[in-house]
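Team,

Forwarding the record for the chain on the shared tracking sheet. I've put the sequence and predicted structure together so nobody has to dig through attachments.
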Amino acid sequence: MGYSDELDRKGREKKRAKLELLQSIALLEDLSDSTSCNRIQEENGYMARFDVAPPKRGLKRRKLMKRNVAAQMQEFPGLRERKKARLRQQIIETAIRLFRKRGYEKTRVDDIVKILEISQPTFFRYFPSKDAVLRDVGRRGFECIAAHLKSELSTNAGTGERLRRLYHALALEAEADRPLWKAVVLSGAMDPVRSPEVRGAECIVAGLLREILAQGQKRGEITSSFPAVHLAEFMEALYHTVVRQWTVDLTGPHNLTERVDSAVEFFLCGVKP
C-alpha cells in the first residue's frame, strides 16, 4: 500500500470517527424526544448534512424515566419546597415566641429576621407583615374551635350543656395564652372582615354552631322564633366581645372564664322557648 493510499485510508477513518461523534452528541442532546437531530459539518470546502434518528428503545426508555420522575415529584415535594415550608414554619414559631414575650406592639419584623438570620426581603416573600403571621394563628384558632364543635355534635348532651362546655373550654385555652391572644385580637387575625384569609375557617365554625342550635330547636330546648343562623351570630358576637375586652382590659382586669360562663348563661336565658 502506497503512501497516498495510507493517507486516504486515514482520512476515511477520521471522517467516520467524526460522524460517530456527531451521532453520539445528537443522541445526548435529544432531550425533547425529537425524531431527528441535524448536524452541519464543514470539511474540505463543502457542507454535509446528517439526519440522526435516535433508537426507538432509547426513546421509550427516556419517556418511561420522565414519567417515573414526574410521578415521584408529585408524590414527594422537592428539596426546595421542603426548605420553603420549613422556613415558613420557623418564621411563624419565632414570631409567636416574640409575641408572647414582648407583646404585639413591641414585636417588629426586624426582630424576627435577626433571630432567624434572614433578610427582610426573605421574610416578605412569605408574609407581607407581622399581622399576616398572626392570621395563620387565627386560622388555626378557628380550626381548634371547629374541633370542639364537632366533638360536641358527636354527643347526646342537651344544647345548654353543649354550649356551656364548649365556651368554657375555649375560655380556658385563651386564658392559658393571653399574650398571644392579645396579639391576635389587636391584629384582627380572627376578624373575617379585616382578614379575608380566615373567612373559610370562620364559615365552617359558624355552620357547626348553627347545627347545634338547630338541633336544640328540633328538641324544643331553645326558641324557634328566630332562625338558627341568627342565634349563632348572637352567641358568637357575645363570646368574641368578651374575649376582646379581656385581652386589653377594656373593662378592667377580670377572669375570662367567669365572664364567658356568664355570657353563655345570658344567651341561654334569652333563647328559652
